[in-house]
Fold this protein.
Amino acid sequence: MPQTQTNMDVEKVFHMTGGIGETSYARNSSLQKKASDMMKHITIETIQQLYLTTTPRSLGIADLGCSSGPNTLSFIKDMFDAVEGTSSKTLVPGPEFRVYLNDLPTNDFNTIFKALPDFYKDLGKGSKGRPSIFIAGIPGSFYGRLFPNNCLHFIYSSYSLHWLSQVPPALYDEHGRSINKGNIYISKSSSRRVCELYLRQFQEDFSLFLRSRSEEVIGGGNMVLILLGREGPDHADRGNTFFWELLSRSLAILLSWGEIEEEKLHSYAVNFYAPTKEEIEEEVRREGSFELDQVEMFEIERSDGVKDMSYGTQVARTVRAIQESMISHHFGEGIADTLFDNYGRLVDQEIAKEDIRPITFLLVLRKIMI
């Protein structure tokens, strides 16, 4: 049977490309940074308000799906500055910070750890001694427990929760072939059954995420979650879903060139789901541990490329940094350069015809006091 994501352990294989090389996530996560910066004021306001209402001596913060790029340390600095600024205005001594960085065990935590000495030095400029901030890596899937009971005040997760714990197992028949033939995700040719399978997997995963965090966050604690989504009921919209359609086409080109096997193509699918606002709200209500205080929908403005790089190339590099581990494991090493060159060209061609509008949701949740 060809290997599919049902018997390929996502937790052991899926990771952003590590290091600081040309194709690394560290050097190809500017789109995520741009989006997070657009929403940063909400994150900062949430943790400031949380600190004012709880004034803990030791503040527990977790970044779930931290990856390995500069965005992680940038987030920590923003949270540190926000709370320190708030505490100085209230004349209350600032808390110590316990910051937990979580991602799958295959994540390149070492790149983050190597940057910490300089990070601590920069954070401590203008103050006496090292700031009271303690940073630790927590490997493991956030679809399950990660921390002891009631040890966290604030959880942040940026561009992680649209990744499912697995491709829906029922997407494959007894021979390991996808019932969504020719597609690596939902497309216009996908059946209603395929859409239902992906939705059900999202519901199971998101409910488990909320249930697990409800044990770990104090009553009244907050979560700020940023994830990709879609605007309306149509699964195959010209937003986040369409980017996967173009990657399917890029793989089909390689098949026509004889560079990948047909059987491999028809057994590949992505562990991704773009929910609607209503699907998110329904799962929060059903699980029952959190109040959804705020939901914002953002459409990130498209830039025309940077440093002699077209928008399509920029998207291709971003998707490569995210997907290369899974693609190389499934199809074998050596196809990534050609695949993502084709992908970048297709994105540019489609953008020239009609814009692609990827949607991002920001959620602010509060743990219900019992």
Q: What stands out?
A: Confidence is low (pLDDT under 50) at residues 1-7, 23-29. Residues 186 and 241 are 7 Å apart (CA to CA). The longest helix spans residues 30-54. The first strand starts at residue 58 and ends at 64.
